[in-house]
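S.,

Sequence below, as promised.
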Amino acid sequence: MTTDQEIFWKGEFGNKYIARNCSKELIASNTSFFSRILNSIDSDISSVMEFGCNIGANLIALKSLLPNSKLTGVEINSSAVSTAKEWGGAEIIEDSILDVKLEQLYDLTFSKVVLIHINPDSLSDVYKRLYDYSNKYILIAEYYNPTPVSINYRGHEDRLFKRDFCGELMGLYSDLKLVDYGFVYHNDSVFPQDDISWFLMKKCI
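The prediction came back faster than expected:
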């Protein structure tokens, strides 16, 4: 069953989000962001899956850092999918994160400011996909709060949720090891992000 949050992002609000998040400055900040995280990875990354890729701004940054890796993204908004496909640097799958079925595993699976918009009742399904489709690393880059809380998002209720996503994921899968974590402030003078806390985990199989 499609959630209210999915309907929200498939429609007009999701289209407006695209216009707010397509700047060259964002790509530069994303490149710096992922460069720091990749420095904590001790093995080759030949494939990447992003759950909720929007227009591909994160994948564009990763392409410059991992030029030989296969990049794939899943996105629910049709307009965002079209823009991401026009770029041409990644395979883009138009589908819901809650429904998509993939045919391979990836060295890195990740979400970036996406879990915060998932219906809390559906989070365990997304956690499972992040875990099941990774054969090495999982990255979560979201808004952190030690306890679950719902925040008014641009005048809308129940569209943004903060919580300890990493802690919940590691609580579900005991073989996950926290490799590194960090925070990027919105007032960073060079490469700002939107107060994002990130957590890099590795499967210890």
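The first strand starts at residue 47 and ends at 51.

Coffee later?
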